[in-house]
Design goal:
The complex is a heterodimer of chains A (326) and B (264). With 326 residues, chain A is an alpha/beta fold. Helices cover 29% and strands 28% of the residues of chain A. In chain A, the strands form 4 sheets. Chain A has a 7-stranded parallel beta sheet with strand order 7-11-6-1-4-5-12, sandwiched between helices. Chain A has a 5-stranded parallel beta sheet with strand order 15-14-16-17-18. The radius of gyration of chain B is 22 Å and the shape is globular. Chain B has 264 residues and is an alpha/beta fold. The chains are: A alpha/beta (326), B alpha/beta (264).
Chain lengths: 326, 264
């Protein structure tokens, strides 16, 4: 085992995932404490643009595994590729973004490499040569420390939007490793990727989210939420009650059984703030709540609680943001 | 076709989580325990497959947990599992998620399950490690966080969707396989009272460490993380309350978001 830190640099269609530059920040710090290099691994088909973007995050070395059969994600083929790079680099620590891909791949790779794993971590340190991290559990209702054993590969997936993106250097050494498919890797493949939710951003990829609750009363009325979201270049979210009532698809649901989000701004309109909803959005940097009920739970956790009728306040907000933009 | 559903008993999502004074765990006394909601989707899918198809021979539910976890097993037996496996031993309480996956893999590896179902994550540890890790240790393909799942007529292949950023991956593969379930794939039924009564008569096999040959080497080969120092999340400072005319509040809010919070 070297003292190096390996990061899995997720890409799709030769575009590096934004979370990769973010995890390069703690990865660099951990590599510094271990006295090792920062190595990044790119897996896919065409990887030139992703490799360039990756070099700008200041990694020391990039190992690419490029093959036509890796054009789309497959848990089996990507596991094989990443495990091969890990065998070559022999890192002490492997960091992955806690994205849809990272969450899916990390446990498989950890089991294959006989490592130890903590998911969705928000802080990383090295204590007596071993990785030590912090992560939320009980859906954000508590935080804990996770200690890793010092004698085996430590793997962590890192929560997106937790660290600032690294932007340094650009002179990474680049090498490639031929992809050798594992026996049985053909048992699973991605046929296609289908966009969902139309032209509006997904809640997991937006810096700003405008969310609506049951108080919107209908799918039709959600158009005022979409108008504000459009002005803010934001995603549209919804409470469970609004999704269960059919006002929005479940793919937009924020909360315990929906998606956990950590945007820089979360605007909750007509959402009272059931504990399950709070669990899904309390990691947001700034929270705005609009509600006629000043005592609603979400109004209590909001940084800015606007007491008023959302059908008047939201269009007024859209107008104000429009003024700002033009 | 033999289906295995791996479930976990967790604190109910509405429970107030309090950290114990020694910070090594949460207060467990008086906490209502339930079947992990995502695992309920998994048993529901298994039961729906049996209702739709002729070839589902058995549905087995498995859990790793203390004696009290038997109640969670009873719930899924009432929903429709035929029999249960309860991995219960003080030695199992200290295992982390990867080690638990290794334990489950060692227990079921020769049982010939065609489809292994699990929720996409547990709402206590929020880790989601067990499903994909179990698939790896059993050398099976897996689909994580599936929002659609269909079996071919001959029961040899599957098609599934899994959610990614603003899109769905459309995935195909062959059985045997592990699938973890995302919300929205199925709607859960509640077990009826007669079925709860019947569930009491369904067989549950208890498996201890002594029943798993070489268990300490198996779980000792990977994982080994330890959870310490639990604490409540940091309190947010009290917010500002805006009252008045909608247009005035809107203007004030946008100014605050721009100048104070610096987020727009």
């Amino acid at each position: 085992m070297s003292n190096d830190v390996l990061i899995f640099a997720e890409q799709r269609d030769d575009r590096l995932h934004a979370a990769v530059a973010q995890i390069a920040t703690p990865a660099r710090a951990v590599a510094g404490k271990l006295g090792g290099q920062l190595v990044a691994c790119l897996v896919g088909d065409k990887l030139d643009q992703a490799a360039e973007a990756l070099a700008r995050t200041g990694v020391d070395r990039i190992v690419t595994v490029s093959d036509a059969s890796l054009a789309m994600y497959s848990a089996l083929r990507y596991r094989t590729a990443l495990a091969a790079v890990a065998a070559k680099v022999a890192p002490r620590v492997l960091l992955m973004p806690a994205t849809f891909m990272g969450r899916d791949l990390a446990p498989r790779v950890a089991a294959r490499l006989r490592g130890a794993l903590a998911t969705d971590v928000i802080d990383l340190d090295v204590v007596e040569g071993a990785l030590r991290v912090r992560r939320p559990l009980y859906n954000g209702k508590a935080l804990c420390q996770v200690h890793f054993p010092a004698d085996r590969l430590a793997i962590a997936s890192v929560r997106p939007n937790t660290f600032p993106a690294a932007a340094a250097g650009g002179a990474a050494a680049r090498e490639s490793l031929a992809f050798v498919a594992g026996a049985g890797d053909e048992r699973l493949s991605t046929r296609e990727i289908v966009r969902t939710g139309g032209a509006v951003k997904d809640v997991t990829e937006a810096d700003i989210i405008v969310s609506g609750g049951r108080a919107l009363k209908s799918e039709e009325n959600f158009k005022i939420i979409y108008e504000l979201a459009r002005e803010l270049d934001a995603a549209v979210g919804a409470s469970r009650a609004a999704c269960d009532a059919g006002y929005q698809p479940h793919s937009r649901q924020v909360g315990l059984t929906g998606k956990t989000v950590t945007p820089k701004l979360y605007i909750a309109c007509g959402i009272s703030g059931a504990i399950q909803h709070l669990a899904g959005m309390r990691g947001s940097k700034v929270i705005v709540a609009v509600n006629t009920d000043a005592e609603a739970p979400l109004m209590k956790v909001a940084d800015y609680a606007v007491v008023g009728d959302l059908f008047k306040v939201v269009p007024a907000l859209t107008e104000e943001v429009r003024k700002l933009r033009h | 076709m033999k289906i295995l559903v791996v479930i976990k008993q967790v604190p109910d999502s509405t429970t107030t989580i309090r950290v114990r004074p020694d910070a090594e765990d949460i207060e467990r006394a008086g906490v209502k325990m339930v079947v992990n909601p995502f695992d309920e989707f998994a048993i529901e899918l298994a039961v729906q497959l049996r209702e739709k198809r002729q070839d589902v021979a058995s549905i087995t539910a498995l859990t790793v947990g203390p004696a009290a976890a038997a109640e969670a097993l009873r719930t899924v037996l009432a929903i429709g599992a035929d029999d249960g496996i309860h991995l219960q031993d003080p030695a199992f309480d200290r295992l982390d998620e990867l080690q638990t996956a290794a334990l489950v893999a060692a227990t079921v590896k020769d049982a010939g399950y065609d489809l292994i179902l699990r929720g996409k994550q547990e709402i206590d540890l929020d880790s989601g490690q067990l499903g994909p890790a179990l698939a790896e240790l059993l050398d099976l393909p897996h689909v994580g966080a599936a929002t659609r799942f269909e079996l071919s007529a001959d029961g040899k292949r599957f098609a599934a969707n899994r959610r990614i950023e603003g899109a769905d991956e459309v995935v195909e593969g062959s059985l045997p396989a592990v699938v973890t379930i995302e919300k929205g794939l199925v709607e859960c039924r509640y077990p009826s009272l007669p079925n709860l009564m019947k569930a009491k008569k369904k067989p549950v096999r208890t498996v201890t460490a002594a029943d798993v040959p070489g268990v300490s080497d198996i779980v000792g080969a990977l994982g080994g993380t330890q959870v310490h120092r639990l604490e409540p999340p940091p309190q947010r400072p009290p917010g500002k309350v805006l009252k008045g005319e909608p247009a005035e509040m809107a203007a004030q809010l946008v100014r605050l978001l721009r100048e104070e919070a610096k987020v727009v």
